[in-house]
């Protein structure tokens, strides 16, 4: 009886928290279907006649949604692949050939994330400027890769550490070279982990706004810039901005939802013992 | 098939330290290990947990470098040879099967790496599978197998290699008691059939005794004795081996060598050593204390008059454990806890005072300080009888 009641209580609290967290997103979606006038109204309105007007504007030729979307996709994708290509060997070395300084190196790498991005804005801006990397896709890709790399190394490292040492040694004795062990034994076993790491990096890069806004103008501009463009000198367009935001988050949410199912772990079960 | 030689092999886990710093650290995990196998021999490494069995095995495998000494496989010094080039196969306690590969692929993996022709791979995997009776499992993934089946696959993976040496590190310890006994016999049969030099690690002395052609008893990284199962049982080199080999364990009592050097006296217990010991050894311990070891199965219940006995010890029965064919009886004699293995239908009951007797040829004597065996029984027949 009591347990049941407290279960219901927990469920209510859970729902409340979820609702509070979800509300801004809901509000964004609702606003996207409003006219600019209703969007601006100070009395919140839940019931209104929805319009696709804002979406139409956002997707119109001149707005260039597809240009920004392509940049977002391209930079997020390439930086993720590049990140994995760097993180996998780094994590491999640290997980399977640790040295005395491995732990320190890991902590040090992650500690670089403690610095706020704005702290290195000026030097990076100046370097990029002299290298001609401002408003350049590849400039952004390098930033995204560098930004995600510590977390990616850390994640891949922990997935590699989950691979039982015995299995790696068994491959060694079976005659596998380091490369063969990595590609034929460790990577297949760590695949779900690599997928999660890749997905996280993709989401972080896709949602990145600080560098996108400061280091690009138009050529390399991503959807973050697209959203921001609805806050212009002529005024703030809540409804259009919301529509742009919806158009921005939808692809990544859909991707995340599909990918989640692929990432159920359990491959290692039954190998050892 | 090959002779494996270990000469003065030492292993120190220095925690990354090298040179003097490592040397002065704690005791080595393996210290001065010397062994030369015969070609095709089945050698068992046995000893309590942490005595360095796995470390020795891993050095032979090449998974661990030896700090000092020399390891040869088939005459070749393998110090600088990587594990993958040593032509050995290892069966892990955890089985260490590749979870993402089918049983077939698990067994075929080493051959694929060698780029063996497909027909040869098929043939060798199928042959090994049929020896181990796992042909019907070839398409399964390891997670769909029982513990015993995984064990067989792990063995199969080793057999397919046709290696020079098999290394098995407690391969049966994850199996239940009955399966262990079955697999034990099967591994012995397999060894007889393949004739490959095999190192087998266990901490179970029964496993060691039943499987090993020679047994290496280890303790704290040092070899205590290397011998055949019968010799270990009959002539243990020291008290550790004497207590470790044989179930239940050997009883030990402190007794004094009489001035006549022919008798041993405890508070109440007494033995006439007779001709079973070389006179010299007892001479040198005249009037001194020695440890006397008696195996429980060598004690007999003496139901007659105790006074007339030359070899006798009496005490009050504490615990009686009937096991069917035999009954284990525990008594307190002269301050020592003594276990005797009596007939199944013994009439000894808890609280009874009984007298036990033992042939003097069955006694083992050890120095009280060094704990080394003093006088090995010269009577061979006593050992094997
Ligand atoms: N990687 C390591 N680093 C440091 N010390 C180690 C390492 N591996 C083993 N040791 C130490 O070496 C000694 C021997 O260990 P080993 O694993 O060889 O024992 P074992 O006889 O196989 O024991 P068990 O029956 O428990 O498996 C132990 O004291 C252990 O703590
Ligand atoms: Mg071990």
In a few lines, what is going on in this structure?
Chain A has about 270 residues and is mainly α. Chain A is about 75% helix and about 0% strand. Chain A contains 12 helices and 2 strands.
Describe the fold and architecture:
Chain B: It comes from Kushneria sinocarnis. Chain B: Pfam families: ABC_tran (PF00005), TOBE_2 (PF08402). The complex is a heterodimer of chains A (273) and B (385). In chain A, 73% of the residues lie in helices and 1% in strands. By secondary structure, chain A is mainly alpha-helical. Chain A has a domain at 65-229: MetI-like fold, CATH 1.10.3720. Chain A has a two-stranded antiparallel ribbon. In chain A, strand 1 (231-232) and strand 2 form a beta hairpin. In chain A, helix 4 packs parallel to helix 7. Chain A is globular, with a radius of gyration of 23 Å. Chain B is of the alpha+beta class and 385 residues long. Chain B folds into two domains: 4-239, P-loop containing nucleotide triphosphate hydrolases (Rossmann fold); 250-367, Beta Barrel (OB fold (Dihydrolipoamide Acetyltransferase, E2P)). In chain B, 27% of the residues lie in helices and 29% in strands. Chain B contains eleven helices and 20 strands. In chain B, strands 6-7-8-3-9-10 form a six-stranded mixed β-sheet, with helices on both faces. Chain B has a five-stranded antiparallel β-sheet with strand order 13-12-11-14-20. In chain B, a hairpin with a 5-residue loop joins strand 11 and strand 12 (263-265). In chain B, helix 3 packs across helix 4 and helix 4 (118-132) packs across helix 5 (147-160). Chain A binds chain B through residues 99-100, 164, 166-167, 169-177, 180, 184-185, 188-189, 267-273, and chain B through 16, 61-63, 82-86, 88-90, 92, 94-100, 109-110, 113-114, 141-145, 147, 150, 157, 161, 174. The structure holds adenosine-5'-triphosphate (ATP) and magnesium ion. The site of adenosine-5'-triphosphate (ATP) has 11 residues of chain B, from helix 2. Adenosine-5'-triphosphate (ATP) binds at residues 13, 29, 47, 49-55, 203 of chain B.
């Amino acid at each position: 009886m009591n347990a049941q009641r407290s279960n219901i209580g927990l469920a209510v609290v859970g729902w409340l928290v979820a609702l509070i967290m979800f509300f801004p997103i809901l509000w964004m979606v609702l606003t996207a279907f409003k006219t600019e006038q209703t969007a601006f109204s100070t009395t919140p309105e839940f019931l209104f006649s929805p319009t696709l007007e804002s979406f139409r504007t956002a997707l119109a030729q001149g707005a260039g949604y597809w240009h920004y979307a392509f940049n977002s996709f391209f930079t997020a994708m390439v930086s993720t692949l590049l990140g994995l290509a760097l993180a996998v060997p780094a994590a491999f070395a640290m997980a399977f050939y640790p040295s005395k300084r491995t732990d320190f190196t890991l902590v040090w790498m992650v500690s670089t994330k403690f610095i706020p991005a704005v702290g290195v804005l000026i030097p990076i801006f100046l370097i990029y400027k002299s290298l001609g990397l401002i408003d350049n896709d590849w400039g952004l890709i390098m930033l995204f890769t560098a930004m995600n790399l510590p977390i990616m190394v850390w994640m891949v490292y922990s997935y590699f550490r989950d691979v039982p040492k015995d299995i790696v040694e068994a491959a060694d004795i079976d005659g596998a070279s380091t490369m063969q062990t990595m590609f034929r034994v460790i990577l297949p076993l760590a695949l779900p982990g690599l997928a999660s790491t890749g997905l996280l990096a993709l989401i972080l890069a896709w949602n990145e706004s600080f560098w996108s806004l400061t280091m690009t103008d138009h050529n390399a501009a991503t959807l973050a810039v697209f959203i921001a463009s609805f806050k212009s000198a002529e005024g703030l367009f809540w409804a259009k901005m919301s529509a742009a935001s919806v158009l921005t988050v939808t692809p990544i949410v859909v991707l995340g939802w599909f990918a989640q199912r692929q990432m159920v772990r359990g491959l290692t079960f039954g190998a050892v013992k | 098939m090959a002779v494996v030689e270990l000469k003065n092999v030492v292993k120190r886990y220095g925690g990354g330290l090298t040179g003097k710093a490592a040397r002065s650290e704690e005791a080595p995990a393996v210290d001065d290990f010397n062994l030369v196998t015969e070609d095709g021999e089945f050698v068992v490494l046995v000893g309590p947990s942490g005595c360095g069995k796995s470390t020795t095995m891993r050095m032979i495998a090449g998974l661990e470098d030896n700090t000092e000494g020399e390891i040869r496989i088939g005459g070749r010094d393998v110090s600088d040879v990587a594990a993958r080039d040593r032509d050995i196969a290892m069966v892990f306690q955890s089985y260490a099967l590749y979870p993402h590969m089918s049983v077939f692929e698990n067994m075929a993996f080493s051959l694929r790496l060698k780029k063996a022709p497909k027909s040869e791979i098929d043939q060798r995997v199928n042959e090994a599978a049929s020896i181990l009776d796992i042909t019907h499992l070839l398409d399964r993934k390891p997670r769909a197998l029982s513990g015993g089946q995984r064990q067989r696959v792990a063995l199969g993976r080793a057999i397919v290699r046709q290696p020079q040496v098999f290394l098995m590190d407690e391969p049966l310890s994850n199996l239940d008691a009955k399966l262990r006994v079955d697999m034990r016999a099967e591994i012995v049969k397999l060894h007889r059939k393949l004739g490959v030099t095999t190192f087998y690690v266990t901490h179970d002395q029964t496993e060691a005794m039943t499987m090993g052609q020679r047994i290496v008893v280890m303790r704290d990284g040092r070899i205590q004795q290397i011998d055949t199962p019968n010799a270990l049982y009959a002539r243990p080199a020291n008290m550790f081996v004497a207590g470790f080999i044989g179930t239940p364990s050997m009883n030990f009592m402190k007794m004094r060598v009489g001035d006549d050097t022919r008798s041993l006296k405890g508070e109440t217990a007494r033995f006439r050593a007779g001709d079973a010991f070389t006179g010299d050894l007892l001479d040198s311990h005249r009037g001194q204390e020695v440890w006397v070891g008696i195996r429980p199965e060598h004690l007999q219940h003496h139901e007659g008059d105790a006074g007339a006995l030359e070899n006798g010890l009496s005490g009050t029965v504490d615990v009686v454990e009937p096991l069917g064919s035999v009954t284990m009886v525990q008594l307190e004699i002269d301050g020592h806890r003594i276990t005797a293995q009596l007939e199944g239908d013994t009439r000894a009951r808890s609280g009874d005072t009984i007298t036990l007797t033992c042939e003097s040829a069955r006694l083992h004597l050890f120095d009280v300080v060094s704990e080394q065996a003093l006088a090995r029984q010269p009577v061979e027949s006593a050992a094997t009888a």
